[in-house]
Structure formats: structure tokens, C-alpha cells
Amino acid sequence: MRKKLTFGIVLSFLFILGLGVYFYWRHEKHYKIVCYLATWSAYRQPPMNYNIDKIPGNICTHVVYSFVGLDGESFELKLINPKFDSSEHGLQNFTALHKKWPHLKLLVAIGGWSEGGESYSEMVKEEERRKTFVASVMSFLEKYKLNGLDLDWEYPGEASRGGHPDDIENFSKLLQELRTEFDKHHYILSAAVPATEYYVKQGYSIQNLTKYLDQIHIMTYDLRGTWSGSADVHSPLTVRPHDKAEYAKTNVRNGLELWTNGGATKKKLMIGVPFYGRSFTLVNKDNPHLNAPIIGPGAPGIYTNESGMLAYYEICNNMKRHGWTKEWDDVGQVPYAYHEDQWVGYEDEESLMIKMKLIKDEGYGGAMIWSIDMDDFNGECGNKNALLQVINDDLKR
């Protein structure tokens, strides 16, 4: 009888242990897919205008409404585009996504490149101003029933962006104060951060960000552009033979190592991937190779209408219908394409699969996308939301 009881206890123990291992494994394999939405995409020319009801909430874990801003006088959060955000019920429609996709975590991002950094530097340097800002954030999240805030201050400490050397310390103070209040309501606190040593050293205490943030969204894109002086892909995985000087460390792998070597927890790091390409006008159309000389930015896209940038849906259309030639960077593990004197470096399904493998192999927290409104969401070239679907499928395997 005693032997039977002992055997039964052992079996029960093994069963419970097995369940624990299973659920631990499931938890560890739960990757985040953070989808940024550029709200101005709603005003693009049809059929490439992107309304909130097009968000594929079944293949994102988090969606970030971008952007709101900071009032430089009151130091409270403010609406940058009241017409869309309020009059056209953008924020209200955004939070209504919870009804259709209860699992979604809905965040709002403050900042962005166009905001600059001066008002943020002024806000963080005084305790009372920080308190005012934190209070306004809490009221905003409660009003719109959001799950959290994403800080996209570009960039603390950078003088050309209105920054100050004390920003690195004062930004950490703000994060600590936000964390204290957020913990009371289980809000998510995240930040979009650079992947280059120059910006990181000026304005970010990596250890403090790891301590106070739930998620760190690394902008491992825009690593090349017209400022680089040649045609190149802006999100290379690793260093290539033609990368010299500071560009020898300006790639996805080095950007991630910059943060992990500084003490960042891998599970909090989301690898940024672009759903757009950086484009160029070549000096010589007969030399369309990687690192070719350029005159300047590429021609604006029909729908994105911005020099030097093409949405993925514009790039795939160019190749499918307008005779563009696709090539592959074997070292950087990214594609590029060209036609006549136009050239673009971008991400496709194959390059994203490689980056998702990196996330899984090395234990990062997931992927961050800028931005889902530039995916092939209408299925112009094949499957709808082709890039986002690849990310979802790969990370759930």
C-alpha cells in the first residue's frame, strides 16, 4: 500500500512539474509584436489611405497610436492633430479596438521626429514640470481607456534637437516618476530609442531604462540615408565590407549589442523593422550597385509623397508593374531594387524572416514595426499585410 501511495505521489509530482515546465515554456515563447500606426496615413490618397478599422488586431499584440505632443508652456500632453484625434474621433475609434480585439494592448506615443526635443528638455529639468506632465498623462490614459504610454523623445542630450547634457539624468527621473504612478494602474511604459552609439551615450542611462520601462523599442532602421552619401539599405543586419568609420558599427546587430552590453534585459528589447524603404537618385544609372554614388534622395512615392522614402506597397508595385530590378545584399541580409536612376533599400518577407530568427535564437522580446500603414495592406502584390503576417507567423512557430 505504501509503495502504491509513494508511486502515486511521484506521478503527481511529475505531472505538476510537467505542467509548470509547459506553461513556463509558453510564457517564454510569447513574443511581442508592436505595431505603430502613423495616424496621418488616414489622409493619403485612396486606396492607400489607412483608417483605424484596417488595423489587423489579430496579428499584433500592441498597437501604438502615433503621435501626441507636449505643450511647451503648460508641460502637459497635447493633441498634435485635433482634427483627426478628436473631431474625427480618431482616439475614440482607436480605443474601440478593444471591443473587437480584447487581447490588444493599446498605447499612445508622444514625441516623434517633428516634435523636436527642446520642450522635453525643459519639462524634465524641473520636478514640478515633471509632476504636471505625469498628471496629464495619467488623466489622458484614463480618459481614453488606454493601456500605456510610449515615449519617443528624439533625442535627449542632443544639442541640435534642443537637448541639454543634464537630459540623461532628468529623463531617468521622469521614468522613475512615471513608473511609480503606472504601477498603481498596471499601465505599460515603453520608449522608442536609437540604435547608434552617438545618440545613446548622450541621452540614455541604459540601466535606468531597463529598470523603469516595460518595453524598449530599438529603432534599428534609418541607419543609412542621403546623409550617408551613397545608395544603401537602411537596416543592414551586420557590418559589410564597404562600411567604414562610424558605419562599421551602424547596423542591427551592433545596435542591439550596444543596449545589451550596457545592461538592457533582452526580453524587454523589441527589434525595430521598417515597412518602408530609403530611396536615392543615382549619379549613374549604369551603376546601380550597393554603395553607388548618389545625387540625392529618390523621387517621392505616389501615395507617401515624401522624397527619399517609399512605402513597401509602393516598392512591391514598382517591381511587379514598373520594371524595377531586385537584388540582395548577401552580407547585410536585406534587399534593394532599382530602375533607371532610382534606387531603394528596404525589407521584404525573406529579410524579415532572418530578423525574426535572430529574435528567437538570441532571446529578444519581439519585434516593433514602423509602421503598419505602409505594409501591403490591400494585397496589391499578393497576400494582405504580407510583411506583418510573416512576422506573426515566424514568432508564433
| Low-pLDDT residue intervals, each spanning 5 or more residues | 16-28
In the CATH hierarchy, the third-tier topology is known as: TIM Barrel
Largest sheet entry: 8 strands, parallel, barrel
State which percent range the strand residues make up: 15-25%
Q: Would you tell me the overall average pLDDT? A: 94
Helix segment tally: 13
Structural account:
It is a single chain. The protein has 397 residues and is α/β, with parallel strands linked by helices. It has one domain: Glycosidases (TIM Barrel, Alpha-Beta Barrel), CATH 3.20.20.80. It contains 13 helices and 15 strands. It has an eight-stranded parallel barrel with strand order 1-2-4-5-6-7-8-15, surrounded by seven helices. Helix 6 (127-144) packs across helix 7 (167-182) and helix 12 (349-362) runs parallel beside helix 13 (386-395). The longest helix has 27 residues, at 2-28. Mean pLDDT is 94; it is low at 16-28.
Record the SSE blueprint.
Blueprint: H1 2-28, E1 32-38, E2 62-70, E3 77-78, H2 82-87, H3 90-95, H4 97-100, E4 105-111, H5 118-124, H6 127-144, E5 148-152, H7 167-182, E6 188-194, H8 197-203, H9 206-212, E7 215-219, H10 252-261, E8 269-274, E9 276-282, E10 294-297, E11 309-311, H11 312-321, E12 325-329, E13 334-339, E14 342-345, H12 349-362, E15 366-370, H13 386-395
Parallel strand pairs: 1-2, 1-15, 2-4, 4-5, 5-6, 6-7, 7-8, 8-15
Antiparallel strand pairs: 2-3, 9-10, 9-11, 9-14, 12-13, 13-14
